[in-house]
Amino acid sequence: MTEADRLVLELRGITKRFPGVVANDSIDFDLRRGEVHALLGENGAGKSTLMNVLYGLYRPDEGGIVLNGKPITFHSPGDAIRAGIGMVHQHFMLIPVMTVAENIVLATEPRRAGVFLDYGAAETRVRALAGQFGFAIDPDAKVEDITVGQQQRVEILKALYRRADILILDEPTAVLTPQEATELFAILRSLNREGMSIIFITHKLNEVLEIANRITVLRRGRKIETVDREGSTEAGLARLMVGREVLFRVEKPASSPGAALLEVEGIQASDDRGVETVRDVSLTVHAGEIVGLAGVDGNGQSELVEVLSGLRRPGAGSVRVAETDVTGAGVKEILDLGVGHIPEDRQRRGLVLDFSLAENLALHDYDREPNSRLGWLFPSRLVARAKGLLQRFDVRGGDAQTLAAALSGGNQQKVVLAREIGREPRVLLAVQPTRGLDVGAIEFVHEQLVAARDAGLAVLLVSLELDEVIALSDRILVIYEGRIVAEYGSDVTPEELGIAMTGGRVDEETAA
Amino acid sequence: MSTPTITTPGSPEPPGDEIPPDTFAGRITLAHRAGGVAVPLLTTLVAFVAGGLVVLVFSRKNPLSTYHAIFNGTGLNWLLPWNTCQFPCQPAIHLQQTAVQFTVLVLTGLAVAFAFRCGLFNIGGQGQYIVGTIAAVWIGTSLDSLPGFLHVTVAILAAAAAGGLWAGIAGFLKATVGAHEVITTIMLNWVALWIGVYLVDIGGPLQDPSAGPVGVTAQVDPGARLRVLWGTPGLQALNIGFFIALAALVVYSLLLNRTTLGYQVRAVGFNPDAAAYGGISVRRSYFLAMAISGAFAGIAGSMDVLGWQLNVDTSFVNAYSYIAFLGIAVALLGRNSAVGIFFSALLFAALTTGTAARNLDPNVFPSELATNLTQMIQGLVVLFVGAELLILGIWQARRRATKTAGRVE
Q1: B275 touches chain A (CB under 8 A)
Q2: ipTM rounded to 2 decimals
Q3: pLDDT digits (tens, 9 = 90+) for A253-287
């Protein structure tokens, strides 16, 4: 049984129940030596619960773990670490003011006289370890000074330093740029060659097809299937994940632009540190069209949107909404003119997580009739109106009285959409509207944006996802270092956009 | 014992990647939800058990009989049906004192709680209480041409305005230059204290000239006194201030939950970024929340002055005013809810009265130690409330780690 000999890890019939929900329903999962086994599923499919069981954070209600052929029980992450399992969380657990070497040896640091950190020894060991696996990293650099991609490598090295031979990566590419993701994949392949086995948690189909040897798909707490990468397609995996056919192309009729509803002229703005990040941006969005603003994160998009929504004052230029000058106007005034805003970060900006859904849906008009009168609020009216909106936007997982915090990410975003589109604005600022959402929720958001466009809204879509921008937009503007550097129609290729976004030379004919 | 924190019964899918915002208000909110009524009750019970142990170890007194004596000292035994009491009835007098303490603790507790709900930590209750007493005594000793009802109303409103303005300074500084309210309110406490002492001390503008070498104001005009409903006027008798405090609890709850201002305050308290995005002025909310908080504390000051103290002397300003600090413990134990504050104010009021040297039966517990017992038990309750927050904080940190581990869900 050579095949079975190569299994380093087996999860057998893992069941984990929480009150009211079965997060894992008798799931089998195994890992071979030297492979990448992807765990694929929508948000809430049970991926993290399963990994938390493996990492000793949860005790399974049923089922067990077999490590290298021997049954084993983990009572804490410490047990799992000692057994050679390392986990790299999506949010790093590093101490920013300490050096790379210090972070890696933390808790098992080499000592002098039993008390003092032997920094020299730590550095030497870290350097040797990095060299062994081909990591480019400076052990003396402070963690706060290195990039996110490098911080992730520190996390991986930390696991290797603790002699892990099974590595769990939780959504490792969520925080990385495309280049950093490519570098990560190279690292993972070299780790595989050294005999490391890797569990790769994700909901991104293209990554799975690029890096995984085998793919296990979870849906609603159940294992649907384990497939080999060979012969798998994005469409096939998406169907396993969602349980139905998924449209990858957004179906939308040709646009019929009307009057200019959002006119931006020569806007200049600075970020919180006073650095100029928006330089002379002019753009126009007409009724009935989606204008995509593509760009690498941090090229002035956030500040531009803040200016347009009244959260930030521009240094120069003008903004007109439906022919009314709103330059430097407050948030309230701009909202009242009919601007909807799906913010970049729904948890920080878009929702008050400790408010009920009814209260969240009233964020812009709690102070208006019929919600309130002369400063007197009518909570029952908020609830009554919320019920209709929640139904119309298919929000699941709670009713009008549920706290927003209790919803899944996709449903939280639906609540934001319900509020921003539901109040029938004329202009819609949609910033990264599908960030962190799974396939099904993305499809819903896209449909809603197209529907809003067809209803005559002027939609400005700001997104870092090229595919999304291309699929949805009628026109695409590229922002680079605070300037609009190119304009394309919807027939542009991702390659062209990618070059323009990174400041590459723009073809004279297509440039605006 | 990894308590599954990620599901609510009835929700078909595990909830999202929620992590409460790491603000003070966020932690308080968490504390709110974490144990419901059970945790504050347990906190109090543990404090009492610990207090009993200290009594046993250090004074060799029976803790149970000591607590029984304290209970009798609170006057709450008057409410027991088998109690028959002839005039002068001690339990009745004790109960009136408890009610008077309750009044001021409810109001200072609300002063802390309202600011909490806006994400602000108002520990300037003492200063706001002092300016309230000064305003009340000033109006109460002047304007004596006003008819009685109007006079007392104006005096209370003046105290509310003074407390509101005083706290409003901290709110204004927070809103404009971002000065932390904990620092500014503490500083304002001392400013209020020394201004108060100056005003009532010998030669001060509010000192009663006939008092000679004593730093004390004149007595409040009879028309400006809170009407006594039960007991001997001039002692700590039950006056209508008790009902003003109960009304304040209702006002607090309505203001927060049933007004647009309350909506703004809660939104800012939970998530200032989302509030700003929604068009709410965060600065205005900070200022108003502090001012309203201060108004509660200012009213507390007027209740003591117009209800039973009737004048203000230097020791009242620089020593007795410390009672306003207890408002923090009241609000924390009461979970910033009107109902919670009602019960925690009752507890602290009963403790203060029940352990007072003059109320505690000297045969059970030596009166010279009684004051120490007061402070010890109060201290233990505050300590355990603090420990509870600490434990919840640690628990939250654990949960945070677990949640980030479970971020995909």
Answers
A1: yes
A2: 0.78
A3: 888 888 999 999 999 999 887 888 899 999 999 99
